[in-house]
# Entry
Amino acid sequence: MDSTVKLGRWFGVPVGLHYSWFIVAGLITLSLVAEFERQNPGWGPLGTWAIAITAALLFFGCIVLHELAHAIVAQLAGLSVRGITLFALGGVAQISRNATSPAWEFTIAVVGPIASVVIGLVCYSLAAALGWQLNMPAPSAIAALLGWLSYVNIALAVFNLIPGFPLDGGRMLRAVIWGVTGDADRATRIASVIGQAIAFMLIALGVSGVLMRGDFGGLWLAFVGWFLLEAARANYIAAEISRRLRGIRVGDLMTRNLAHVAANVTVEDVANARLLDRMTPGLVVGHSGEPIAVVTLEEVERTPRASRSQLTVDEIARPLDETTAVEPDTPVTAALEVMSREHVTQLPVMDHGHLEGVLAQSHILRRLELQAALRA
# Structure
């Protein structure tokens, strides 16, 4: 999930906001205004809104700390973290790949709820020291703020411990199954099925709450269940694709016979000649007979039509020495992870500094389609 608003780097990890965050932040602020007005009518409108906005911002700050705990432990496990994104249902740490062992998977998952519990206990201790008590008027705005943060962080930890993949509890369950079976993909499929079952339960509880009790808070529960269902399905599909591609190397699927084009050829000439299509995902851009860059259909499509006659292919191509490449012996699943991380659909394949070919997502899709046809 890509960020739309960048918040800089926290402890070395990029943090950003997804557009959906603003909707939920507004809803949380409105609900807090209503709650604080009911419990503390003496604060006045300005004070109530100020505390509500502060509480909502601090809550999302606590979510960042929760995700940072995941990110820091993932880095200790040797995994790279692309960033943290806050969105409608909380936050997500974008870790480049899965953990290398069940122990690391469990540790990365459990540290998030632990961080939320610690934050909740610290806030509770501070609030209690200021005289705050649950369901009682707060002696001060600071006490009310800390008391609410203590409650919501403990609730966040409990929710994330639900064994529904890909929640933290589901990842912990996956780690346990992985440790027992010794098969990470199988563990992911089992945990994803359990996650889908729990998601259906949440949706059913939410819908029944609306229909039978008129509790419109059930809509939020149903929405959470729907999100969990989609995420669990996506992880199941990813695990199934990984299983089907097991043992297949980049060299088995890549295109070796790449067309060559001179560096001074215009983008318009390349587009009009239809040198790039589904069967030929990349062109080698050469200078004095030496390959210097690769241009793919993505670069051509991103070039405005009005500029194609003025730009040459070497101006839009990706230089080989600046492009993330894979080797022929690289597992295809690892190449897919690189594509996801780099937001590309093709990768140059290099062997000892020599360009061997290009691997495209279309090659992988054709292999999966062939496998499905053979099974049918």
